[in-house]
């Protein structure tokens, strides 16, 4: 894999903060919503379940490293008649015993399979962390977009009031023969146009609320979101170096573990082509009466070696298949690393130019308001007709709504940056109480 760049295009002297970045927005309700989503989100619950399954599979893969011990028992009862109904022969047989087996791991096949299972388990844990970081980011994004829709609604409501005031003024001037009927019709059209903006905003807010409820593992209509001002955007967080992403991004860590797991499967497939040595032992007690069972005993020990001679190329193909998996996962790892670097750079570029865009749009809005004020003044003095006023009014109102969206986009790019940088805060997540494995449930050792 080609080396990563030594630094990001926008450099920060601060070290990356692996903590819960959404707390920087300073809203207690938002913090609570994220925590509730991390505890109840369905995708996270499914990830926990997958982790438990792979933990059990890892335990099964490691079990072959140890001997097996089984208990056996047998009882038989026969009755024989020799033709005389009064003569009956009864025979009883009792036996109990133990049977043990162990495969000597001559070539490391069993250990390789166990190592692969452990890595699959650890990769699944990193997949869980990736899901958690995605859910946290989506909760914050939905909360910001809900607040934006409410801000847009307040702006539109203020615009409706202003347009009604303008309409009353024009109608008064029309009754005094100062304005024309066309001026009245144009302002009525503008009022209707602004009023028509409300239903889509209301609809979008409700849809966002529904999606937020689902993210939090709650039914639709069961959550409330308080009105809040959009947070101020602070300075860039600590970025660290591109190489830091290898440790801070759980998807990269998972891809690396999947690659290592595939390497161990190659070792297991190669070892499977060599002979295997198995040891077995049996110990049994038997007797015709239960009380005499332990009077007769037998002990058997055996060793067997099995080696492939001809299998039609099956085991060789298994090795080739495992190597193909390694190549595939190596490519996935490279793509994951480069994608992570791209996502950080994308977020940095988007935020940089969005800041400039918001500043320029603010200047445009100030100029539009000045133009509207001048147009109204000239209209009242009778120097112009109403068309310049209408044009300036539409421009101001469109810019006001647009600015609400663009300021939110700036915040969303910051959220995207935090998501791209990853972190280690998800490492402390605990499984749901209901899903905690019981004492008799096998689990894998992370160490």
Automatic annotation (TrEMBL):
Keyword Lipoprotein recorded: yes
Protein's name in the database: Membrane protein
Gene: ibeB
Membrane topology reported for the UniProt record: Lipid-anchor
Compartmental location: Cell membrane
Region (Disordered): 69-91, 427-447
Bias (Basic and acidic residues): 76-91
UniProt family annotation: Belongs to the outer membrane factor (OMF) (TC 1.B.17) family.
């Amino acid at each position: 894999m080609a080396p990563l760049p030594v630094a990001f295009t926008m450099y920060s002297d601060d070290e990356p903060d692996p903590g819960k970045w959404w707390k920087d927005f300073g809203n207690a309700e938002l913090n609570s919503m994220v925590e509730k989503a991390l505890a109840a989100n369905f995708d996270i619950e499914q990830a926990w379940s997958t982790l438990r399954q792979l933990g059990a599979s890892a335990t099964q893969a490691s079990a072959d490293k140890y001997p097996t011990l089984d208990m056996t028992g047998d009882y038989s009862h026969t009755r024989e008649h020799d033709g005389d109904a009064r003569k009956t022969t009864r025979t009883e047989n009792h036996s109990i015993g133990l049977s043990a087996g162990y495969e000597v791991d001559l070539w490391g096949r069993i250990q390789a399979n166990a190592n692969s299972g452990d890595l699959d388990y650890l990769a699944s844990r990193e997949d869980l962390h990736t899901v958690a970081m995605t859910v946290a980011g989506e909760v914050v994004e939905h909360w910001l977009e809900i607040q934006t829709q409410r801000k847009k609604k307040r702006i539109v409501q203020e615009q409706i009031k202003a347009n009604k005031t303008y309409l009353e003024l024009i109608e008064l001037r029309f009754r005094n023969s100062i304005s024309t009927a066309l001026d009245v019709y144009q302002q009525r059209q503008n009022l209707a146009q602004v009023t028509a903006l409300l239903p889509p905003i209301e609809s979008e807010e409700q849809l966002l609320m529904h999606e937020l409820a689902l993210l939090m593992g709650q039914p639709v209509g069961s959550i409330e979101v308080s009105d809040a001002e959009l947070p101020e955007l602070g300075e860039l967080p600590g970025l660290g170096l591109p190489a830091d992403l290898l440790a801070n991004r759980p998807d990269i860590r998972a891809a690396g573990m999947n690659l290592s797991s595939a390497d161990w499967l190659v070792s297991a497939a190669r070892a499977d082509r060599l002979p295997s040595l198995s040891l077995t032992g049996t110990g049994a007690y038997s007797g015709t009466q239960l009380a005499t069972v332990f009077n007769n005993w037998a002990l058997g020990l055996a060793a067997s070696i099995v080696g492939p001679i001809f299998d039609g190329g099956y085991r060789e193909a298994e090795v080739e298949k495992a190597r193909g998996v390694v190549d595939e996962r190596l490519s996935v790892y490279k793509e994951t690393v480069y994608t992570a670097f791209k996502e950080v750079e994308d977020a940095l570029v988007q935020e940089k130019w969005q800041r400039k865009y918001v500043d320029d749009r603010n200047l445009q809005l100030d100029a539009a308001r000045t133009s509207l004020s001048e147009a109204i003044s000239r209209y009242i003095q009778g120097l112009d007709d109403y068309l310049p006023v209408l044009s300036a009014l539409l421009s101001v109102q469109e810019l006001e709504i647009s600015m609400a969206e663009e300021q939110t986009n700036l915040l969303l790019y910051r959220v995207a940056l935090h998501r791209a940088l990853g972190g280690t805060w998800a490492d402390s997540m605990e499984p749901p109480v209901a899903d905690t494995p019981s004492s008799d449930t096998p689990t894998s050792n992370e160490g």
